[in-house]
Amino acid sequence: MAIDFQDNMILLIRKYLKRKIMCPETKFRHYVKERMHILELLKRTVDMGESNSVLLIGPRGSGKTTLINSVLKELSHVKSFKENALIVNLNGLVHTDDRLALKDTTRQMQLENVVDGKVFGTFAENLSFLLDCLKSGDKKSSKPVIFILDEFDLFCEHHNQTLLYNLFDIAQSAQAPVCVIGMTCRLDVIELLEKRVKSRFSHRQIFLFPGDMSLSEQPLSAFDDRLELFQHLLSLPDDENVNRIEHQYDDCTIEPQFGSVWNDYIKSLVSNVTIVNLLKKMYQIDVSERSFRNFLAMTVSSLSEKHQRLEINDFIEASKMFSQDDKILMLEGLSVLEMCLIISMKHETEIYDGEPFNFEAIYNRYIKFANQNSSIQTVQKPVIMKAFEHIKNLEFILPVSGMNSKVEKEYQYYKFLLTSQQVMEAVKNYSGLPTEVSQWAMPYQDMYLQCL
Fold it and tell me: CA 246, CA 204: separation in Å to the nearest integer?
């Protein structure tokens, strides 16, 4: 199907699709109950002067930040929230101690003692000043403040947890309308809180797990939902919504007939066997929506005046960045000696049906190979031991538990954590690997048959 767009039209389409893909909070699709819970908490803080604290817990990529952003975006259209609420964003990776967190808090709250981004006075003085500002007035006269603490578990490492203690204390005492929202991937985060901090926390916890997404509105399987998202994110607005682009992009509109042809083509991709198998493979490797959106954004970036349609090969090329096995990439970065030891471990595991091995067994297998191939330069045993330890540090092998801890390291037993397929894929992709080594990496049974 040929699509002939004007040059400026395809650039407009690319811009629109990338913004649609990379702004997931504009249409948050999952965790309906959890999202409503957060929405009600913030509404009560702003409208009724309530103080609350809550922890949002879930693995990375589960949608914690997107959920919060979608709630804040919805509330930003409410007049009382827009005019009164103050939002303070802190991140444990950035604000590594309470002084940095306090400085940025005073800046975001636009308090009087911030001049050119500098906070004057000692930490104790500024903390006292901040607390006085928060506690001044009453529920009706004080502006509600919403604290969003990303990487919350890192704030627990601060000295005496002073910032957390004071934020939770204000929220509990209801001296000012404050809502503290912590986001973390640590399931044991409550255990990280000091006793005095824990006693002031509301113990309200909201858990987000990808398998628990509320899809009651869309009774689809997880992968069918992914296919539907694929079509939604790559489709242009229908005739009724075309004017929405006009307001966003400098009075440029996508003509309805172009949008209709484009959407028909995207719909055909959803039923394309190659695309479906590609998306299914990616979904098996990584179910997170974040990486999926990044994949689509990279694919859409290939659009240009000279390339005006998303070809199947565009999706295949973009997927290579997101479907590669990290262990294979790490193997490709090893030295030739280390790769030889990996191959020795592979053969040892194949011959003895997955039984553990020690350094001496791998060393002897490698030396036997090196002696049989004049092109392979042998090295001293301490060098080989160092390469073996590097492989251990990369966690390609794992010490067998229950072994005698006093045994010499040459005789410590290890379990091989790589599959034969991973090793063979790395060998195939390894640039400059000697031919003898590549041939040696063949499955042991195939090598044996070749020798017959």
Answer: 44
